[in-house]
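note to self: dont lose this again. the chain is below, predicted strucutre after it. 502 aa total, dont forget to put it in the shared folder this time
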Amino acid sequence: MSPSPVSFRRRILAGGALLSAAALTASLAGGPAVADVESPPVAVADGLIDTADLNALGLPQAENAETVTIFSPGDDDLKFNHGTVLTSFQGRLYAQWQSSERDEDAPETIVRYSVSDEHGENWSDPIDLTAPRTDGYTSNGGWWTDGETLIAYLNVWPSALSPRGGYTLYVSSTDGVTWSDPAPVTDTQGQPVLGIIEQDVKALDSGRILTAFHVQPGLQVKPYYTDDPLGVSGWTQGEFENQPYLPDEMSRELEPSWYTQEDGDVVMTFRDQGGSSMFKLAAVSEDDGETWSESVVTNIPDSRTKQSAGNLPDGTAYLAGSLTGTKTRHPLVLVLSADGETFTEGVVLRDSADLQPLRYTGKSKNLGYSYQKSFVWGEHLYVSYGTNKEDVEYTRVPLGDISLREVPAQIERPDATGGGREIAVQWSSSGAGDSPITRYVVEAESRSGVIVTTTVSGDDVDAVLTGLRPGRYRVAVTAVNAFGEGETSPWSPWVTVTGKRD
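---
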């Protein structure tokens, strides 16, 4: 991994012990610490998060982080804006959120979106995706795309439904401008899914789409998956037993996100709505979301809000949120893990001192970077949120600054020998990085710019490029492991392919 401009803090779990929420609370209070019966699948390294530091939680600033305001309301605009979710479609960035006059989940709440053609730097005026309902309200459910069609999920909350809950609709577009009529998101039987979709709709390596719905009665969170590439049908509820909290009204686990560990297991992290602690819950699936362990308390501080987890292209697991251990939703931080088991490093994306003032009052409006969601686009990780439930914003950070899993080192200049219609190439093996080298890509370039490539096993340190036209060539080699390609070697000296029989 190339050196990062961020001076990360790395600490190791003392003795590898993981403490329960009760144990951590007791420990902080000076009492005895008692270990959990079930070991949590994920933890933050001891001392990584300093909850006494109200400005930055003890983490260094991400020096290359950039923050962009997508929409900031004026006196004549809708002043409650929340739940910002980003995606990319046909080379453009799309932002989606819910809006109302001043209060959270007000009857006039609608879903809006904005578009950027300029790499997220400048944005269109907000566009209404829904209109106010007379029988309840609509909040945003996030995005999905198969590359050809853009799906916008819409969460409908009927005012007459008791206990409070809802269902999910979707609209689709092939150009990001013209949208279909709303239709229900359906299960394997073609029946509507009677639940509120979580905004973390992502694909596993297998292509299966995974998220969660808060299903009726009330809001009982359940993992759901589908193999429908469009993500609008075939949704199946994973086997997951909720912890008791408010029967037929709300589960203890709420508003989850997920990422994969190095071995392919899926970890789903939850807001702990009903526990006595302020730590996140987590559960694991070993079969692409079909069955899940029971959720257990971790040592990751919670703030009773949404979070966003995921994996970077090299496999690094991350968790974005306000890990304060209180209901305070600032600062906004990012913690990172090479194996998905222990988060050992972290940065602050926006500290508390960077928080702008609240300009307009309203029901459930409070200071903070609320309801974070994230996705990778290009060379950056984008983390979006509603600042003070008022301003629609995101912060992005270069992937090179936060990737923990190393690709292979650069190979030294290879040796090349030209022949009649071939080139023989030899090189010295490079450092493998954080995973064994799986293959080498050998590339020959002619004077005219023609490229010829071949691939050999990671156990080989030589190759022969055959069937070449006569001319002058130079050769380079790239090592590849499970986490990606290393830097390509310098070019070899030019060699000649004569075209004559040797």
